[in-house]
Amino acid sequence: MRRLTDTRLVVATGNKGKLEEMRALLEPRGIGITSNADHGLPEPEETENTFLGNARIKAHAAAKALGLPALADDSGIEVEALDGAPGVRTADWAETPNGRDFLVAMERTHDALVASGAPEPWRARFVSVLVLAWPDGHEESFRGEVNGRVIWPPQGVLGHGYDPIFIPDGHERTFAEMTAEEKNALSHRGASIRAFEAACLG
């Protein structure tokens, strides 16, 4: 396992919600975080069918372009009754002619669950896969998951993405009803970041 010795790290994303979460988790470790937008980098096309594959694309593209270590997250929600959908296509379910709208994505998920006839509780899990890439092509990867259930209607106004319809196991509030600190302690991305910290930061 290669350790990260550089104090600068590019988080290869254009997703503001992800960036805020990763900054909150990593900046206390003394790491200066920048993003694709800070460097004017376009987002590469995500052509793989796995979280790991797409995280690799994003991390290596940024590391190669900037000559700095780059950390990329690919994540999504897998709903059991929908055979794991939307999964790696989670963000695609939010696409509209005017950009991404996650209320549309949540409604689409709910409509698919109703059409499936699956009884509640609707079991689901959030998955986050991180890839840390160096300019020389080396990489390390980390995975975090959190199990829970999808509910309807949406509850809460915090967080981002599908947070208003996901309640993690052992809790009665959605991620969107939790503070950032509460969510990060439980979430898939919090778990993958902690795995990265343990392995590469010590």
Provide a compact summary of the structure:
This protein is α/β, with parallel strands linked by helices.
Secondary structure layout:
Layout (H helix, E strand, L loop, with lengths): L7 E4 L4 H11 L5 E4 H4 L11 H16 L3 E10 L15 E2 L2 E2 L1 H15 L5 E12 L5 E12 L15 E3 L11 H7 L1 H14 L1
Parallel strand pairs: 1-2, 1-3
Antiparallel strand pairs: 3-6, 4-5, 6-7, 7-8
Rounded Rg: 17 Å
Q: Number of domains in the coordinates?
A: 1
Q: What is the number of E strands?
A: 8
CATH third-level topology: Maf protein
Strand order of the largest sheet: 2-1-3-6-7-8
Uncertain spans, ≥5 residues at pLDDT below 50? none
Order of helices and strands: EHEHHEEEHEEEHH
Give the overall shape, derived from the CA principal axes. globular
Strand percentage lies at 15-25%
Helical coverage, percent range: 25-40%
Q: What structural class results from the helix and strand content?
A: alpha/beta
Q: Whole-number average pLDDT?
A: 94
Number of separate helices: 6
Describe the structure.
This protein has 202 residues and is of the alpha/beta class. It has a single domain (8-201), classed as Maf protein (Alpha-Beta Complex). 33% of the residues lie in helices and 24% in strands. It has 6 helices and 8 strands, in the order E-H-E-H-H-E-E-E-H-E-E-E-H-H. It has helices spanning 16-26, 36-39, 51-66, 102-116, 180-186, 188-201, and strands at residues 8-11, 32-35, 70-79, 95-96, 99-100, 122-133, 139-150, 166-168. A 6-stranded mixed β-sheet has the order 2-1-3-6-7-8. The longest helix is centred in the N-terminal third of the chain and has 16 residues, at 51-66. It starts with 7 loop residues before the first strand and ends with a helix.
